[in-house]
Amino acid sequence: MNARFMREALDLARKGRALASPNPMVGAVLVEGDEVVGRGYHTYAGLKHAEILAIEEAGDHARGATLYINLEPCSHHGRTPPCADAAIKAGIQCVVAAMPDPNPQVSGEGFRRLREAGVAIEMAPEFSAEAEKLNEAFAHFMRTGRPMVTLKTAITLDGKISAPDDNRGWITSERARAHVQELRHDHDAILTGIGTVLADDPMLNDRTGLPRSRPLLRIVMDSQLRIPLDSKMVRSAAGAGDLLVVTTSAGSPDRRKALEDRGVCVLMFDGPGGRASLPATIEWLGRQKYLSLMIEAGSKLNWMALESGSIDRIFFYYAPKILGGLEALPLAGGIGRRRRSDAIRLHRITIHPIPPDEFAVEGYVDVHRDR
């Protein structure tokens, strides 16, 4: 196994950011001797998988070559025939892969089919963690049928997201906010609450300018359909198909029609306490094959998301500031957990420095230790 070629396969896979969903990001490199003869990476609109593109580029040089790939070649018919069969037909001699298919129903089947045809299989364990991180939302979706949900917020060092009197300006720097835009670009959908819309009138869009296979779906939890018809999000919704408002049976039918006439999709999911149901919304996203959801909301909705068990990952951006006081809002309000022993636990923590003085904390909810 040549690490250089697996590194190139992973780099190629990353070119599928926001372009491959709802499929995984896959890069493929075909090597004859010590020379690359074919390359490919997957985009959903492009239809053809990475392996097929690499084989087509290699032509006759694919016979006897080694395929480096970050994910096990597929073994089932989807929109395209199995890539494992294409590799066998092309005469590929060896497949070096960083990880198996995360779909529990098919994992290992591609490798089995290749082995039975006489193709050597070699795993690259030193790249497995990186490969799994790259497609963690896809793997989560394959295991659970629901999108991977990330709670993102910008906070002061003492855990505040909002000042009581004047919230003009930003908590974090322009550099940190640019990092957030990259995070948005990596997600299929983004969600906030009506309180944030009424207070800030955000666009809540992907401002990286980078291409996407489908628009970033913007979602507003709005139990009584209070979203202003002249808000930035509603005004930008016409014809875009990228704005969803989730309401309850208390929402006005006339208001619903007015929103739908403006190109807004409105769904009704009744939840506890007269609020729109976040779990039902997440389940709906899963049925629509959205792999990832980021929540950027206020204190109440943040806590509801955490307490309902809806959050898989957190991404907190810390600014070198302190607000103090009891009136400044914490990142998660509500009743909270009443005992320290009942705290929601996180693990697999990563610190992302944002020079000169900021940082972000990424972590995953430890479902085995919560509750």
Topology, element by element:
Blueprint: H1 3-14, E1 27-32, E2 35-41, H2 50-58, E3 66-69, H3 83-90, E4 94-97, H4 109-116, E5 120-123, H5 128-134, H6 136-144, E6 148-156, E7 160-162, H7 174-185, E8 189-193, H8 194-200, E9 217-221, H9 232-235, E10 243-247, H10 253-261, E11 265-268, H11 278-287, E12 292-295, H12 299-307, E13 313-319, E14 329-330, E15 346-354, E16 358-365
Parallel strand pairs: 3-4, 4-5, 6-12, 6-13, 8-9, 8-12, 9-10, 10-11
Antiparallel strand pairs: 1-2, 1-3, 7-14, 13-16, 15-16
Give a concise summary.
The chain is of the alpha/beta class and 371 residues long. It has twelve helices and 16 strands.
How is this structure best described in words?
- With 371 residues, the protein is α/β, with parallel strands linked by helices.
- It is 28% helix and 23% strand.
- It is built from twelve helices and 16 strands.
- It has helices at residues 3-14, 50-58, 83-90, 109-116, 128-134, 136-144, 174-185, 194-200, 232-235, 253-261, 278-287, 299-307; strands at 27-32, 35-41, 66-69, 94-97, 120-123, 148-156, 160-162, 189-193, 217-221, 243-247, 265-268, 292-295, 313-319, 329-330, 346-354, 358-365.
- It has a nine-stranded mixed sheet, sandwiched between helices. A five-stranded mixed sheet has the order 2-1-3-4-5, with helices on both faces.
- α10 links the parallel β10 (243-247) and β11.
- The longest helix has 12 residues, at 3-14.
- The radius of gyration is 23 Å and the shape is elongated.
- The two termini are 44 Å apart.
